[in-house]
Amino acid sequence: MIEFKDVSKTFTLGKREVHAVKNVSLTINKGEIFGIIGFSGAGKSTLLRLVNMLERPSSGSVLIQDIDVSKLSAKDLRTRRRNIGMIFQNFNLFNSRTVAGNIAYPLKLAGASKKEINARVTELLNFVGLAEKAKDYPDQLSGGQKQRVGIARALATSPDILICDEATSALDPETTADILKLLKKVNKDLGITILLITHEMHVIQSICDKVAVMEDGEVIESGNVFETFTDPQHTTTQRFIRSVQQDLPSETILKEWHASGGGTLYRVIFKGEITNNPVLSTVTRKHDVDFNIVYGSVRELQERLFGNLIVSFIGEQKQIDIVRNELKTLVDIEEVIVNER
Ligand SMILES: Nc1ncnc2c1ncn2[C@@H]1O[C@H](COP(=O)(O)OP(=O)(O)OP(=O)(O)O)[C@@H](O)[C@H]1O
């Protein structure tokens, strides 16, 4: 559906070159919700601008539905852009137009008749839950309602792709959750592929199927959200994950634990099915070892369970080593090193 093939984008500022996007290759399949996460300046917006054809790549190609959009004429670009809806952090609504007027705008541009426009606007107002606000102006709306108008407007021309540029970053947590729910509905009910950029891990966690982590213009890690989230390879990905999930006790507690002779701590990670099995107790009991859960949680991610426990083992060292080796065949287990972050 959207394919980045070894895409780079370099800006020239006087004598200085800024490599905003470097050799990015990514595939976003039809029907996916794909999130791109990165800190400020990572290159996320530039990547989006390459998809909605506001920028052309310096090298490589961007394919949308198998068409290389970097090679399209200005006229073809305008037509193809109608196939891509976009919503923004600051909503970008016309304050001088009513809610209905904002939603009607892209339809007017596309040359739809008055009758068609009225029917479509009513349908979209119902879809986003704003039927009563048709005649209001954006200034009379809350942030969440403004973003609903933004979504309705983006959907007006029935696009196949919706691009979300930090769409919930200006909203409070409760409103963010409502908007994310609406985006999920857009994806599920209308089959629209969603590409979103964000610096907020919880957005990725809540609705995305796939994620790509960007840093300094490069994609440093990408894949299915569950796999990436439960087994992050890159320290930047680990930082994002820690922003939503405290997976270790604080350093103070860890130091106190060791100072009081608490012994070695292990992080045990359970993914999916295995979470339902009493693996820890079965293995430890078999080898005459006890265990103590010091810290941890079991969470749900993409409808699968994911457990992260910090445990200590009590027993003879030889037996503990056997337990550790046996557990290694069933779950992820690693020693917790103090000062590891
Ligand atoms: N038109 C431009 N001219 C020159 N440099 C640019 C231009 N657009 C982006 N850049 C530079 O490219 C790099 C990536 O910027 P980009 O806006 O894509 O990052 P971002 O991850 O979206 O950051 P943010 O979340 O802060 O918007 C930055 O160093 C930025 O200054």
> What's the shape?
elongated
Specify the structural class: alpha/beta
Count every beta strand, where a strand is a DSSP E run of 2 or more residues.
14
Q: Summarize model confidence as the mean pLDDT.
A: 90
Low-confidence stretches: none
- Please indicate the count of domains: 2
Q: Tell me about the largest β-sheet.
A: 6 strands, mixed
- In which range does the helix fraction lie? 25-40%
- What share of the residues does DSSP label as strand, in percent? 25-35%
Q: Number of helix segments?
A: 12
Strand order of the largest sheet: 6-7-8-3-9-10
Distance between the termini: 39 Å
The radius of gyration over CA amounts to 25 Å
The set of bound ligands, ions and cofactors reads: adenosine-5'-triphosphate
CATH superfamily label of the largest domain: P-loop containing nucleotide triphosphate hydrolases
CATH-level-2 architecture of the largest domain: 3-Layer(aba) Sandwich
Order of helices and strands: EEEHEEHEHHHEHEHEEHHHEHEEHE
| CATH class term of the largest domain | Alpha Beta
CATH topology of the largest domain: Rossmann fold
